[in-house]
Write a structure and sequence with these properties.
- This protein is mainly α.
- The protein is built from 23 helices and 4 strands.
């Protein structure tokens, strides 16, 4: 397929406008590190929320979600619980407030407020920096694989080349080009450029999603869809097993789909859901990994705004995104052409999204949609590029190498660190062969290794910096070694069987074999953050000094609101799917659930948020 001139003009105009905005705003970012990485904590919460939603609306993840919607049907909405997608709910209900009260620049710097200035704090500080950089480089590699695969199916030029004897495919060259353009405005403009361009990108993406949803509703009838989907595909609920067997498409495709379900490890869906829910609770209360999500929370003006911003992300993200995901999946199902999904001799279901776009979107509309999807990539990539270098500059260079440098020096070092992170991510990206493979490693293995130490730091007073360090190191080592030592073990099963036990053992042994942290540090943290959990010894000390101090008794309310929030968020996801499927009865029921849960959260959460 050859893009029309109007499509190329739209894409080119969007890229130019994005870089222009980034450079225009860049002066505001050059004052100091706080301005460069957090926008001076002056950006309105709704702008940060749109920026955060834009960063989560990545093209690589969207390609994966279209693929799993195609394969698993409506039940696919549960698979992103691997992240877990409802960590935004726990942030919204209570965790964002706890984090924002620290008033720091990065997740690593936050540790000082929890563990003080001990040697354990220094070690834990280093472990978070290492984890943050591994996570950011992993995300950049993940983005590199997705944007290359996407661009290679649309853009008409053959850019393949050979450098020092190494052949670089056209897909890789497109990825390098688009990443290079995005890096320009991120490096120059910092958080200000990232947020302002991401708001523009979110508008473009939302328009694209609505167009795709409208086209799908008009192209695909319920009768056409029923002819090509297996039994249970359009049913949200599940039993002990997934019970989806493909028989409706050509034999080669049916075999590939059934084989894919088996290799993904989702056949025993109830066991999968048990693991995901258990892991999701730990990972969500542990808090976001050191990256762009945490950075948006720390950049808000007050603790209350951090909570509202986190809830706003779910409200604006899921309906447009799932209009696109469901729309492209059903179009691909009804008008399926398996030869267009071939990678060599095998079917690559991650190509479903570009297949549906390039065959069924009219000229002009396709340009807008492609600009929106490139925007999705750029926003996620930009968010990671802006988040990762904060740890290099603030937590390594400033803390250990040059603590008295000028603000100009720190900002210039941020430029250098951003470029270095991008290069490392691209190098790793050259060795990635599957979006699903690296996604499962990031969500199940890497994030799983983060869970134990970060869960304990909130809820248990006795947990100290040494425990945090050894828990993080054990978890990180396990997540990196499991794919090598146990190549046949699913990363989903690796979390409860290997990664969590090792990281928990590291956390507890490191903590219990070393002295508790300084009482003054613990009292200061507890008074400022006021977490619930096992803090009674510290509470008693604080109460002796300040009889008016009140313990946080909101645990039950927070848990109730979290459960309601998960239902609310799932309804936001399912509603647009039912619209695209033209199942208006279930869409109406889902809309009613959205309204009821919204009213409950308004009364029991929003109205009770305290001003910081």
């Amino acid at each position: 397929m050859t893009l029309k001139f109007v499509d190329i003009a739209i894409i080119f105009g969007y890229l130019v406008l994005t870089v222009f905005i980034g450079f225009i705003i860049s002066k505001r970012a050059s004052k100091n590190l706080d301005s460069y990485f957090l926008g001076g904590k002056s950006i309105p919460w709704y702008m940060l929320g749109l920026s955060n939603a834009s960063g989560m609306f990545d093209i690589t993840g969207t390609m994966w979600m279209v693929a799993i919607m195609f394969i698993y049907g409506i039940k696919s909405v549960f698979i992103p619980w691997l992240w877990p997608v409802w960590n935004q709910v726990i942030l919204m209900i209570f965790l964002a407030v706890w984090m924002r009260r620290s008033n720091v620049l990065t997740g690593a710097e936050w540790l000082k407020t929890r563990f003080g200035d001990s040697k354990g704090t220094t070690l834990s500080h280093i472990s978070v920096v290492v984890f943050a950089l591994v996570a950011v480089i992993g995300f950049i590699a993940y983005s590199f694989e997705g944007i290359g695969k996407f661009a290679g199916m649309f853009l008409p030029w053959d850019l393949s080349t050979s450098i020092i004897g190494i052949t670089i495919s056209s897909e890789r060259m497109y990825a390098l080009l688009i990443m290079g353009i995005t890096t320009l405005y991120v490096v120059k403009g910092g958080m200000y450029s990232v947020v302002m361009t991401e708001v523009l990108q979110f508008v473009v993406m939302t328009i694209s999603c609505i167009i795709i949803g409208f086209i799908a509703i008009n192209m695909v009838t319920p009768e056409q869809l029923q002819q090509v989907i297996p039994a249970g595909w359009d049913n949200l609920w599940f039993g002990w097993k997934l019970d989806i067997e493909w028989t409706t498409l050509p034999q080669q495709v049916n075999q590939a789909l059934n084989s894919k379900i088996g290799s993904d490890g989702y056949e025993l869906f109830s066991i999968f859901m048990m693991i995901v829910i258990f892991r999701g609770i730990l990972v969500s209360i542990a808090g976001p990994v050191p990256g762009y999500d945490m950075q948006r929370v720390l950049a808000t003006r007050t603790a209350k705004e951090s909570a509202i911003m986190s809830g706003f992300v779910s409200l604006v993200l899921f309906i447009p995104r799932y209009l696109m995901i469901a729309g492209l999946a059903v179009i691909a199902l009804v008008y399926f052409e398996p030869e267009q999904l071939l990678s060599g001799s095998t079917l690559d279901f991650e190509k479903i999204l570009p297949f549906a776009l390039k065959n069924f979107m009219p000229a002009g509309v396709l340009g807008i949609i492609l600009a929106g999807l490139i925007a999705a990539f750029m926003s996620t990539f930009a968010a990671n590029v802006n988040a990762g270098p904060a740890y290099i500059v603030n937590d390594i260079y400033k803390k250990f190498i040059n603590p008295n440098a000028s603000n100009r020096t720190y900002v210039r070092m941020s430029y250098l660190a951003s470029i270095l992170v991008v290069i490392l991510g691209i190098v790793v990206g050259f060795f990635v062969s599957s979006i699903n493979g690296i996604l499962q490693w990031i969500t199940a293995a890497l994030f799983g290794g983060y869970a134990a130490a970060n869960f304990l730091k909130w809820i248990w007073w006795r947990f100290n910096g040494y425990g945090y360090f050894w828990g993080m190191i054990a978890g990180l080592a396990a997540s990196l070694l499991v794919p090598k030592v146990f190549p046949d073990l699913s990363v989903i099963l690796a979390f409860p069987l290997v990664i969590l036990p090792l990281s928990t053992a590291g956390s507890l042994l490191g903590c219990l074999l070393t002295p508790p942290d300084n009482e003054e540090v613990l009292k200061s943290f507890y008074k400022n953050v006021r977490p619930w959990g096992f803090w009674d010894p510290i509470y008693q000390l604080v109460k002796q000094e300040d009889p008016s101090f009140k313990k946080n008794h909101s645990f039950k309310r927070d848990m109730l609101n979290t459960a309601i929030g998960v239902v609310w968020q799932m309804a936001l996801i399912i509603f647009p799917i039912y619209l695209v499927l033209r199942n208006y009865t279930n869409a109406s029921i889902t809309l009613a659930i959205i309204l009821i849960t919204s009213l409950i959260l308004k009364k029991n959460w929003l109205d009770k948020l305290e001003e910081n």
